[in-house]
Every structure is written in structure tokens, then in C-alpha cells.
Amino acid sequence: MPALITRMGKRLRRLIERPGSAELTRYEALLPEIGELEAELDGLSDTELTERAGKLRLEAEFAEAQLVELCALGREAARRALDERAFDVQLLGTMGLLTGHVVQMETGEGKTLSGALAAAGYALQGRRVHVTTVNDYLARRDAEWMKPVYDLLGVSVGWIEPSLTRDERREAYANDVTYGAVSEIGFDVLRDRLITRVEELAQPEPEVAIIDEADSVLVDEARVPLVMAGSVDHATADVEVANVVRRLRLGLHYETDSDGRNAWLTTAGASVVEKALGGIDLYGDAGSERLAAVNVALHAHALLTRDVDYIVRDGKVHLINTSRGRIAELQRWPDGLQAAVEAKEQLPATDRGEILDSITVQALMARYPQVAGMTGTAVAVAEQLREFYKLEVAVIPPNTPNVREDHSDRIFASPSHKLRAIEAEIREVHETGRPILVGTQDVAESEELAEKLAKVDLPCVVLNARNDAEEAAIIAEAGTYGAVTVSTQMAGRGTDIRLGGADGKDRERVAELGGLHVIGTARYPSSRLDGQLRGRSGRQGDPGSAVFFASLNDELVLSNAPDVPDGIHADDDTGEISDPAAQRQINHAQRVAEGVHLEIHRNTWRYTRLIEHQRRELLDHRDQLLRTDLAVTKLKEAAAKRFEELAESLDEDALDHVCREIMLFHLDQLWSDHLAYLTDVRESIHLRAIARETPLDEFHRLAIPEFHKIIPAIEERSVKTLEEAEIGEDGVDLSASGVRRPSSTWTYLVHDSPFDSDFEQTLKQVRSLLKRGKD
Question: Do 448 and 518 share a domain, yes or no?
Fold first, then answer.
């Protein structure tokens, strides 16, 4: 009876502390068995250890006995290779991953090793594993760091990064375990969609995905699809329009909505623009092209801010991924907007492109029969992980209890009052010698704060998108005695902050002072992001503290809960507010923001389910064309005379390739056209809601018949191309017949998701119509 009461008490405590999490009691019971094998494995040579791990390759699935063996072998391999003995909680995390959970492990608890042992376990089952991370640096670092462990377990490992060639990527994916940023893996999937020979494939069919920082990847990154484009020709921007728009003023010539997603000309603004452009009528038929140019230039001018949304470096516009605070490599906005921003910054326009393909994170993860993940903040999104991915969260207790002090928010009436208080807080803490990490919202804020600190003789190290290449080295030293580090949103995530610096030599000195002090300059749009910043302090039972400063005029409040209740008063001298109503308002604004993001995620999922179904169906057809003689058979039947003419001049293999090249080109082109059509449909479909029709149903009604036209059109266009193809000394000249693939590809970063809520999209359309009617 006492044992039963103890078990019931543990379950009740787990439900209270970890709502929505899975039960791991059965795996906790295996930990003593794992410990009992330590002495035995310690007596093995490295070769014997590797051979013993190799015996697990005979098992397609791991029962409890195999889990015990793997964890014991992994602990021994890590002890020898890294001089790190895995804690029981790390092995519990490994078992959670091997059973398909998203495990929640606090910062500094050793997720990297847990993930590596799980990846090795899956690999020893004969399954190909991708370990996805949030950036390319972490992919390489973790693969190189864990390689000695993998070697001892007889498992091969590699990584991918943007600089790799096609052959190098193929080699990396050929390993048992491959590390890579989720975006890079996704774009390789899209690139493989364009190959014309089987041997060009980079990625073999995937089997297991282990996702590091799973909440960031599966929730934050999932609102916007990965989109790949190819160059068409040189872009042109309307420089005259850019110069006109540059002179417009907010409130007089144009207005923006509260969430900063839309901008439109006022009547006065339209008049100024029309006059400056030679007296044209922007809203007449003749002015429609200039109106489109004005709208996109206004978007670039009013809604995209240098050092917040992008930076200019080496004479080029580099986009900033707002969820990470880093440069979004090889990414850009859709063409008109990209060219408009380049014109705004008086830079030459880059190549124009067309969308070749896109994939959502949900669809990317659906390619893997087995998915697991790890993060420090999973419980907060447990329902989303279950709804969108059918994944359950398992909470792993910390090895050492967390003793970090999380202070209540300090709230101020205005950003200027808040900034003065932040400066005072930094000065006061810095004078004690405690290291300080300040988390800011964007590049501009980080640099503004650094300038102000420098003026009052408080030097700091700044980490943002301008120097993201050095982020690991910078963040690793953030725990040094007397250090002040100012960082954009979660830059350096994935790198431990050790008290006393990277070498830990001053650890005891810093610990005695209270450890790392974390300051947030504003609450983030998600409580998870707040938790992630706080989590940089208090690693593995270290002392530490965290506090957020906030203002009722912060962007979070203005965009999501601007109607602040009357009667909230601030201190006349400091501007600080102690009224609990202010805290409730900020918490409410954050919940609204979280709700908006959830609805965008849900809407993305609703609309892209059909697109993904169509994509899979067309890819099956493409795979047939790629791997079989279907293309030859089809064209031989439909254009027999022309086919015979070519068969006098080409050998069989060359003719097969010509037929395949033609049909694959038209399939890819028609799919690109279909995506463009669906984008147009999405931009107007919400007006159906005004007529009390369901936009999603209407989207399906329009999208399905158009898709069914693609395969017949492929054959029709291919026959025409074959009949018009010119034959020269080097064979068939397909480029003369328009069969030309893009010379380069890149990816699009879309801040304003094409799958906002139906209600929000409808409001945009109505606002536009009403404005045009008024003007």
C-alpha cells in the first residue's frame, strides 16, 4: 500500500508540474540495470566496445533489453571519447527520443549527447537518421563534437551546410547520421525535386528525424513555408517611384495598420504621388502598373526597417530571420519587394525569379516515418505538437534542481523610462562583477543600447546578425566575470554559458556573486521565448537570476492589446508602474500574440494539406518519368514520326534522356505555374467570406480542377517541344526550344505568411476596396 500511494503521489505531482506530458516511469525503472553494466563495459577495449555495439544491428526494433544495452554502451563511449559520463536523466532523454517523444530537457542538461545516443540507436537499427538543428553552425559543431562517440559505437556521421557542393551533400547524406539545419535539409528536398538524372539525387529516402530545439522548428518556423525560386532575368525596380515614396510621411501621406503588416496611401498621399509621377491617375486603368510599383515601394519604405528586418552588408541586402536574430542565408523577399528594398537602399537590383516549389515544415516532417525531438520549452506547445505532428511531450527532470531567481517584471509607462531603468540595472549589477546577458528584440535595439552603455562608460559585447559568424565564441564567454553581453533574440542558442567563461576558471568567484544575470528588454510575443532567455541562466544548478523590463508602449502591447485600462498610474520620477493591472495587460497582449501565431499555423496547415496532396501525386508521376521509360513511351506514341526522325541521329540512351528532359521540364514548369495560380487564388479567396461562403471550400473548388489539367498539359507541351526541337552536331538543342532551367536558385523568406487567418485576409481585401472607392 505505501508503494502504491508513492506511485500515485508521483503521478499526481507530474500532472500538476508537467501538464500534457507522457509518462516515463517504465524507462526510469531501467536506469539501475544500465548502471549495473558499467563495470563490465569498462573492461572492454575500444574494439570490443565497437563490436558489442555492432551486435545491436541485428535488432530491427529495440525492446527494453536493447535500450539498456544501448544506453550503457553510449555512456561508456561518451566517457572514453568526451570524458563525460552521461547522467541518468540524459539516458532517460535518450530513451524518450528512441520511443518517439519530444523530450523537454532544461538548458545545460546535455541534450546534445542525449540526441547523439538516440541517433546512434536508430542507426544501429539500420535506419537512416537526420538530426536537424536551428542553424548551420550548430549542425557542424554537434556532428564534429559527437563524432568520437559515434566512432566508438560504429556509426558514421556527417553534416551539411550551405557551402557544400552537390557531391559533398550526397556524401554527407550517405552517412548513418547526418546533421543539418532544418531549412537546409528542406531546401535539399526541393533541389532534389529538379533533378533530371537519378544519380543527381543528394538525399536518400529519409527514415528518422531527431529535431533539436523542436519547439522553434516545429512551431515558430512552421508558420511560413520554405520556398525555392529560380532566376528568370534581371530584375528592375522603379527608381523614380522609390524616390517619390521616400519623401512620404506617416500620418499625412500614408497610414499603416496596428500590427505593421499593411500600408496604404491617404488621399493627400495619392495626390502627391500622382503629381510627382507626371499627373497620372493611379486608380485609372492606365495607372495600374505604377500603382502596383507604388504599393510595393510603400511596403518597403513603411513596413521594412533597416537593422530590424534586414541589414546592408557588402553592398547587398541581407534579410534577418526574426525568430532567430540571425542573417537568413540565401533568402530574399518575393521579387517586387526585394527589388523595392534594394531601390530604397540605392543598391543595384538582383535577378528576378519565379517560384519553383515550396514545402511546409509539417510536410517536411511527414516524409519521416519516425520523428522525435528535444527542447527546453516543449510543454507550452504540447497541444500544437499533438495537433500538427501527433507527437507527445515527455518531461525529463533536471539532474540538479534549478535555483535561478526569476524576478517579477518591471513595468514602465514609456520606453524611455524603461531604457533608463535598464541602464541603471546594468550599472548596479556590473559593479558587483556579475556577468550580464541582455536580450533585445532586434539589431537596431541591440546597437542603440550598446551606444548608450558606451556613453556612460559601460562597455559591452554585442551579438546580432552583423556578427553572427562569431556568435558561439561570444556567447561562450558571456559568463565571464564582469562581462556585459547584449544579444538579439536568442542568438547563441545551443551554446552553453559556463560561469567563469568558456574555460570556467573563475566559476566559483562568479557563482559566489550570484551567477549570470539575464535582462530582457521587453516581453517576447511568446512566453516560450521569454522562458528560453531566462533559461540561459541557472545552468545545471548554477546560481543565477532573470528579470524582464516592459512598457505599456512596447510593440507587443501596441500590436495586440492597445486599449490599456484607465487608472493605471506611474511613479512621477521613475515612470515605474506597480499596479497589477499593468502586468495583466502585458500578459494579455502576449496571449493574444500567441493566439494569432497559432491561428496562422493552423491556417497554413489547413490550406497546404491540399497543396501537399497534389505535390505528392505529381512527384509520384515525376519519379516514374525519372526512373522508368515512361517518357519515351509517351512521346513515341504521341509523336511517332518525329520520334523516328530523331532515332536516326541519336543513340538510344541519348534519345531517352532527351524525352525525359523535355517531360520533366514541362512538369516542373506547370507545377510552378500551378503554385502561382494558387497564390493568386489565396489573395482573393477571402472576399468569399463576405458572401458567407467558406474560403477554404472555395479554395478547394478552384484548385482541384486546375491540378487535374497538369498531366495532360505535360504531354501536350512535350510533344510540341519534341516536334520543334533542333538537331545539331551535338544532338538536340533543347534550349532553342525554350527548355532552359534556372542558372541559379535561392529561397524566399516571407514575413507576412500567405496563410494568415481567413478573417485577417478578408479585412485586408475589404480595406483595399474601401480605400479605392473613397479615392
Answer: yes
The reply, when asked if residue 496 is annotated as ligand binding, is yes
Which residues, in sequence order, are CB contacts of 682 under 8 Å at separation 6+? 607, 699, 754, 755, 761
Q: Is 384 annotated for ligand binding?
A: no
Residue 131, H or E segment: strand 129-133
Same-domain status, 526 and 504:
yes
CB neighbourhood size of 305 (10 A): 13
Between the CA of residue 491 and those of 5, 468, 692, 716, what are the distances in Å?
Answer: 45, 8, 45, 52
In a domain, 618, yes or no: no
Beta strands in 513-582 (DSSP E): 516-520, 544-551, 576-577
The amino acid at residue 635 is: L
All residue ranges of the chain with pLDDT < 70 are 1-21, 232-237, 258-261, 321-332, 334-335, 351-353, 464-469, 471, 489-494, 683-684, 686-692, 727-732, 743-775
The whole model's pTM is what? 0.81
Q: Is the separation of the CB atoms in 104 and 379 below 8 Å?
A: yes
Q: Does 285 count as an annotated binding residue? A: no
Name the grid cell of 297: 515601394
Report how far apart the first and last C-alpha atoms of the chain are (Å, whole number).
79
Q: Is 215 annotated as a binding residue?
A: no
Same domain, 223 and 306: no
Cβ distance 484 to 436 under 8 Å? yes
Residue 273 lies in a domain: yes
pLDDT the model gives residue 403:
93
Q: Are 521 and 439 in contact (CB under 8 A)?
A: yes
Residue 350, SS3?
coil
214 part of a folded domain: yes
CA angle 618, 621, 624 (to 5 degrees): 155
C-alpha cell at 520: 530582457
Task: Report whether 111 belongs to an annotated binding site.
Answer: yes
Burial pattern 111-127, b for ≥16 Cβ within 10 A else e, equals bbbbbbbbbbbbbbbeb
Place of cell 568526451: 82
